[in-house]
Amino acid sequence: MLRKTLMVIGTLCLLGALGLIASGQLGGLQLLLLGVVLLAGLAFETWRYKRVQPGRIEAHWQDTGERFVDPETGQTTAVYFDPRTAERHYIAVDPARPS
Fold first, then answer.
1. What are the extents of the domains in the chain?
2. DSSP letters along 41-63, please?
3. Cα–Cα distance for residue pair 88/73, rounded to 1 Å
4. Long-range pairs for 15-19 at CB < 8 Å and ≥24 separation?
5. Are 66 and 50 in contact (CB under 8 A)?
6. What confidence tens digit (pLDDT) does each residue in 32-86 have?
7. In what order do the strands lie in the sheet with 62-69?
8. Per-residue model confidence (pLDDT) at position 83
């Protein structure tokens, strides 16, 4: 929900900036920069923190012991860490089954 709201705000910033720039207003450049940074940040977050499907974790990944309820899916999620690359993966787990 938050991601979608931020996407709408970023898109509105870009559209508003284009309108301001077309009318010769210099303030449109700041709005353009804000929209670009916001949408680029959302794209980076989506790319960097992608979820891994259950059962697809490799042996070198370490379970951090962290658990939380994913606000989007409502599922309990486990956090795994790769010490070689410092990547983190978030895997949905069955709370009834111990990991």
1. 2-48, 53-99
2. HHHHHHHHT----TT---TT-EE
3. 19
4. none
5. no
6. 999 999 999 988 887 766 655 555 677 788 889 999 998 888 888 888 888 888 8
7. 62-69, 76-81, 88-92
8. 87
